[in-house]
Amino acid sequence: MLNSNTYKEAVLKAANLGEDTDTTAAITGGISALCFGYNSIPVDWVKSLAKKEEIESLVKRLISKFTIKIKLEDVPQIGDINAASNFAHKFSGYRTTFEETSKSVFETKNKLKSKEFENVNVEDLTESLFFYFRALRHGDGQPNIDYVNEHISLIRTKLIKHEE
Q: pTM to 2 decimals?
């Protein structure tokens, strides 16, 4: 994997080493997916997986078990920029790669611009806020209070609706 630029390249190199190729390729595939992201796995490889539905179900259960659930009391009050930054960093982060995270954040941003609030979930909003604060940190910019407040307000609204 360290000598590869893509998921596919890493797994094929591992498989071509010989001997215990299935184990070597499986371990390399797992680590490479973490490094390059799930979307880097060739689509035809995913489609041809044996027991694909069973694997996807297991992945969902693992994510559910090991993902921190955001509760309303975790979300800062509107206007508290420092608390919003701390919240975003505690409950979100980069997906697997910078590119995958920026793509997801861009999609969330477009949905917000289009007022498609129902198509954005709490995790997307938190990730978008995390990415925003990271960009500010690297660019020495000042936070846009309206932007941050919109995210916090939508997160709070969605959590309240979910509790009802």
A: 0.63
| Average pLDDT along the chain, 164 residues, taken 10 residues at a time | 91 92 93 85 92 90 81 95 94 76 88 90 92 86 91 95 75
Expressed in angstroms, the distance from the first to the final Cα of the chain is 47
Written as one letter, the residue type at 29 is G
Convert the pLDDT of each residue in 3-22 to its tens digit: 999 999 999 999 999 888 99
- How far apart CA 16 and CA 11 sit, in angstroms, is 9
Do 107 and 128 meet the contact criterion of CB atoms below 8 Å apart? no
Q: What is the pLDDT of residue 33?
A: 87
Number of neighbours of residue 101 by Cβ within 10 angstroms: 20
Nearest-angstrom CA–CA distance, 9 and 23: 16
Distances (CA, A) of 115 to 72, 123, 128, 129, 138: 23, 17, 15, 17, 28
Q: Are 107 and 39 in contact (CB under 8 A)?
A: no
Residue 97 Rama label (left phi>0; alpha psi -120 to 50; beta): beta
* DSSP code, position 75: S
